[in-house]
Amino acid sequence: MDTSRFSHILVNEGEFEDLAERLAILQPRAVLPGRESGVELADALSERLGLPTNGTALSAARRDKYTQIERLRSLGIPAMRQIRTSDATELHAWHALSGGTIVVKPLRSGAGEGVRFCDRPEEAVAALEAVRDRTSVLGEPITEVVAQEYLVGAEYIVNTASCDGVHQVTDVWSTDRISLNGVRDLVVAQILLGSDDPVVPELVPFAREVLDGLGIRYGAAHVEIKLTPDGPRLVEAAARASGLPYYVADLIGEGQLEWSADAYVRPQRFMARAGSAYRRRAAFAWAALASPVAGRLVRYCALDEIKALDTFNDLNLNVKPGDPIVPTTWDLEYPATLTLRHPVEAILRRDLNTVRYLDGAGMYEVDTDGHPDPATNSV
């Protein structure tokens, strides 16, 4: 983050009233969270300063993955079975009674950190013990996990912006997933859907129920939904903007950030346009490479082929030649991410499939000295 563009930087040193007083001097129009760990503080500051706010009454439900689902259940919104625990014996017993596959994840983390798909109670216990008493990627202690039934169905993302409880859908995405490195549903692509896609009317009313249920009245929200045989179910929601590199403004003309600015400082403009359907200027996808190998990366073997695709837009290397590479299990382990764009969706889908074909063990030349390669050294 380039902090040189900021006019002021206020550090939260744990003294809330002091922080609120220092912020009040600047006469802010709005307080927005920059990432997941800022949601509760933004709620508290905006409420304290009398600004447009989601308030603090339901802040916990907007951050704690267990409390979030239970809040929806209390309102009669269908929700998955789950348990919150720090106890291995309790978790083992719950999984044994529930049966089937469950998902174990930290209560308050993000980016897929610590998410494990477990078929047996022993695997669930191992997932708990792997994260308990660690510090999350957001800098928070992990003391408990939530274990949830595994929802069968395609997963979608609905991004929104809200003004005084009126919710505008800014963009909707489908996700492509693979099973790799012990992860059942590893995200490898997100595809921007047109607002006229047949699946959108199934998702949007449910997303609005979720927003209302969680008390999200102002600002951006990110809602992850699975369409199961029994209907839509919430995976999780966040009261902040989407975490992806934000290409939506270019693709649509405006996205969550632009709509949120209107919600806070130009509410009449927001209300006058709320309910309008967004229009894509092109088909677009974000995609990630997923490494099955460990070692030190010597080179990528098929990046030139990816760059030659008709839809290629840009590429970001998170792991460069000479860097260590690990088998991808969550967002911060993607060795590379890229975007694809084309006027014709069928061409975009073709090239997404080509990226998946090119990725795999053959994509990576690695020095495995001291790093066994899981692709060639499986037991």
Layout of SSEs?
Blueprint (H helix, E strand, L loop, with lengths): L15 H9 L14 H10 L10 H5 L1 H10 L7 E4 L2 H11 L3 E5 L9 E3 L2 H11 L13 E5 L4 E10 L2 E15 L2 E11 L6 H14 L5 E10 L2 E8 L9 H5 L3 H10 L1 H7 L9 E6 L6 E6 L2 H5 L4 E6 L6 E2 L10 E7 L2 H14 L5 E4 L12
Antiparallel strand pairs: 1-4, 2-3, 2-4, 5-6, 5-8, 6-7, 7-10, 8-9, 10-14, 11-13, 11-15, 12-14
Oligomer: single chain
**Uncertain residue ranges:** 372-379
Tell the overall outline.
Answer: globular
- Proportion of helical residues: 25-40%
Notes on the structure:
There is one protein chain. The chain has 379 residues and is an alpha+beta fold. The protein has helices at residues 16-24, 39-48, 59-63, 65-74, 88-98, 121-131, 200-213, 248-252, 256-265, 267-273, 303-307, 345-358, and strands at 82-85, 102-106, 116-118, 145-149, 154-163, 166-180, 183-193, 219-228, 231-238, 283-288, 295-300, 312-317, 324-325, 336-342, 364-367. The chain folds into four domains: 10-60, no CATH class; 81-149, 2-Layer Sandwich (Dna Ligase, domain 1), CATH 3.30.1490; 154-281, ATP-grasp fold, B domain (D-amino Acid Aminotransferase, Chain A, domain 1), CATH 3.30.470; 284-367, Aldehyde Oxidoreductase, domain 3, CATH 3.90.1170. It has twelve helices and 15 strands. The protein has an eight-stranded antiparallel β-sheet with strand order 9-8-5-6-7-10-14-12. β8 and β9 (231-238) form a beta hairpin. α9 (256-265) packs across α10 (267-273). The chain is globular, with a radius of gyration of 22 Å. 35% of the residues are buried. Residues 372-379 have low confidence and may be disordered.
